[in-house]
Structures are given as structure tokens and as C-alpha cells.
Input
Amino acid sequence: MAHSKFLVIGIPRELMSDERRMPLLPHTITRLRESIPEKELMFLVEHGVGMTIGCDLGWGTDGARIVERDQLYREADIIIKVKQPFPEEIALYRSGQGCCGFHHMATNREVVDVLLQKGVKILPLEYHRPSLTAMSRHTGKWLPSLIGEQFDSSWKWQQENIFLGGGRGVVCQYVVYSLLGSYELRPSQIHACDLVRGRFISPETSVSYWTFSGEDDDELCERLSYCRIVVLAAVRKGGAPKFLKPRHLEYMPEGVLIFQVSIDEGGNIDDPEFCRVTSWQKLVYTVVRHNKLYRVYNIPNIPGALFPELASYALDVANFPYYREIFSRWPEVPGQYLFSGWPS
Output
């Protein structure tokens, strides 16, 4: 298939509540045009994009056109955004159009199926590792302070044992780095669960810590019984593994705070009552089970709500090589970036 010389990229407003990030910043338009001289790139931006972090006035300066939503979807070859399409956006997509963003396919299968049926090219940012890593860094850095906000005093929670599901992932690497550094927790207070047991040296932070295997059920139950703070951030391609079963909840202490970073991908607990999404307006809900109270904190949008400016900058840096490759080769798409269907 011959490459097209002209390419129209659309950047719509995000519809998810509290989502204020942008997939790229205005000045990156010029950089992309300079890096792909063989293409004529046109950028269409919906009214209001970037307003919450003060970037809405920069689009025209850098050569984008400000348009209404209907025109943007009608004319764009590729739609780039941060979060997955919402149902009210689906009708606006057409066959052959690209849809780039964090799709969270496992929890949005119905929307993904409709896009596939319409012939839309789905480009999940989860398939571009630097994008996922950039947001995981921010989440991991901020998690300890968010945990502290749920306790009566700072000293109290810093005496607790903390369970980390997905202990070798980027989120947990930065949580451990913060806990051992800024918060001065003892290594013995950190119980990091992963697929394998052994000493782990974080390539992100160079911090060294031990992980135990979640396949050892006896040890998993014992560790859970120690911890009044549980952070679940285990995600793999295809969604979040449900490695905590309903029976594991019985081992958790009274008043445990369960914090699921993995909730975007469905959460790590195989119990729907513990996998409801919470919002910034209501951060925590409670579940009573086994005559015990559990506090559940399932925020799906930490970077977008807490630090949208920093997160937008991080996404911009991480995504630039990705956009350059996608735009230069369009309408062809490198296979590693394209979701073409569910495994049979």
C-alpha cells in the first residue's frame, strides 16, 4: 500500500471525568512536521483541549486548526487522545480511521468490538511501552502520599506493613523507592508479590528488594495477614490477573485499605464487589465481609487528575518517537502497535 502524502491528525477533548492530560503538547506539532518532511501533516484540535493546564492558546501558534468535534472526527485520518473512546464517541468513527490512546481493552471489550466492526484501526498506547512506563512512574511516586491521606496521622501508616501485588512492575518500583527513601520505612515492612521469588534490583530506581511468588498460596495468605495496606498494580497484556481470590480476603486484617492501581484493567481481586471504580469526589467505599470492614480505593486516573501538566509533558516525550513512526508510515501500521482482534 502506498503511503499517503497528506495526513490529518485530530485531538478531541477527553470525556472521562477528571482527565486533564493531553496526548501531545502544542510545540510538538512543529517538531513532528520537521521530523517527517515527506508528509504534509495537518492538526485539528477541538475547542477547549488543554484549557485546564493553560495550553489551549498555543495550538494556533504552532499551526493547528481549532474546530468543532463533528468536523474533527469527519476530517481526521487518526484520532489521538489519552483515554479510550466513550460510547458517545463511537458513532463518530469511520472505517480506516486510526484511534490511538490508552484503550484498556480488557475492561472495554464492547467498545473495542464495535470499533473493530466499523473497521477502525485500534492503536493502544499500552502497546507502546514507554507511554505506559511514563505514567507508571508518576503513579508510583505519588501513591505513598495518597495512602497517607487515608490515615489519621502520617506516623500511623508509616508503621504498617505494605503488600505490593505486581512487585516488579514500574508502579511498585517507585512505591518502594519512595517508601525506603522519603518515608524511611524498613525493608521488612514491604511485602512485594510477583510471579517469581528472589532479590530484585529495580532498573528504574536501582533500589534492591525481595519479592515472593504469588504461586505459593500459603505464603501469600501469611503475607496478607500482616498488611493493613494492600496496593495492587499487577497488569499484563490482556488485563489484570485475578490472583487474589475471595478466600484470600479472609486473611486480610480488619480495616485494611485496598488500593487498586490495576482497576483500569479490571483489578486484581476476583470479586466484583472489590472492583468498583471510585472517583475523586468519593475516593473510598467500604465492604463488609467475614464480619470485617474493608476500605477500597480504586482510582483509575491518578496521573490525569493529580498532575496533568507533568503527566502531559511525560506523555509528550514518551510518545514523540511513536507518533513519528505511525505518522510517517500511515496508512500502514507496524504490527506491534495494532490491535487486530481477540485471540481465538
Observations:
- The two ends are 28 Å apart (CA to CA).
- Residues 6-127+307-337 form a domain with the Rossmann fold fold (CATH 3.40.50.720).
